[in-house]
Amino acid sequence: MPADVHPYLVPKPGTVVWQPWMLLDAQEWFPIPAAVDGWDPGTDLRVGRRVQVDPTRFFQETGLELEDVALTVSWTSSTTDMTEASSPVPFESNGAAVADTLLVGKRLSGTLTLRSTVSLIRQPARRAVGVAAVPGSVLAEHVQRVVLENVSSMFPVHEIDFSHTRLSPTASWHLETTTELIAPFYGTFRVLINKRDRELCTAVARGTKDRRQQALLDQLQADVAALLLELALHLRDELAEREEWPPDSVGDVLSRTVAASPLALAAPPSPADLADFRTQISGAIRQFGRGRIFQ
């Protein structure tokens, strides 16, 4: 494709090895998952990765020495639309570079896009035809997306008095949704909490939870996740019409929800199958790690 053609020499596949992104959790490093479950808005994330370059092959294929390039890392949040970057990391003589950076939690939410590049940081001492010469030129790059998930990050939470709306005044919560699959998910899905349910309002608020408050929050999380999965199953045929939906669109989130589900059922179920269907939904949600977990 034309977009893949560079006006300068770039390394061949295998010359640059992108080792997995790692996440620091409880003083231990773990491979960063596709979704960081249980992440709370405002919580910083410390991430790191190692990149290994074959110095000989890199010079042969690009005409550049390792001291001419550096590892750069940047990240973008889908909901805050903020993009930040860490300082360039030079490569050692053996071709290794390690990025270790702290992502500020208050600037994160939704889907986090991590971009790593091997970029030119200075003009090479020897200029040659086809060799990158403009600082900032990207020789190689790797992009990884990570979903930061929990009730309050996936769904904005708002407290309102249901008695002033069309909603039942005795209901505790309501999930606003849309079936417009190209709409932005994080801008159209939100959880409304009935102010009249003061106990649930207190449980949803930030801060330390007692056992009852945590149980209320777990139940809300499970119920919202079950509704999301059921909606995705109802829209399964529409979701299958495209192989890939725009990132963070309703279609994208619902497609990932269906793909992660162990259910093989098509929705909606018949009245005779409704009880079994709801039981399977409940089991699938627990497999997702949502709601109260068996002790």
Report on the structure:
With 295 residues, the protein is an alpha+beta fold. The protein folds into two domains: 148 residues, Immunoglobulin-like (Sandwich); 136 residues, no CATH class. Helix content is 26%, strand content 27%. It is built from eight helices and 14 strands. Strands 4, 6, 7, 8, 10 and 11 form a six-stranded mixed beta sheet that branches. Strands 1, 2, 3, 5 and 9 form a five-stranded antiparallel beta sheet that branches. α4 packs across α5, α5 packs across α7 and α5 packs across α8.
Number of domains: 2
Q: How far apart are the termini? A: 53 Å
**Alpha plus pi helix count:** 8
Structural class: alpha+beta
CATH superfamily of the largest domain: Immunoglobulins
CATH topology descriptor of the largest domain: Immunoglobulin-like
What is the N-to-C order of secondary-structure elements (H for helix, E for strand)? EEEEEHEEEEEEHEEHEHHHHH
Radius of gyration: 24 Å
CATH secondary-structure class of the largest domain = Mainly Beta
Uncertain ranges:
none
Strand content: 25-35%
- Give the helix level as a range of percent: 25-40%
CATH arch. level architecture of the largest domain: Sandwich
Per DSSP E runs of 2 or more residues, the count of β-strands stands at 14
Q: Which term fits the overall shape? A: elongated
Rounded mean pLDDT score:
86
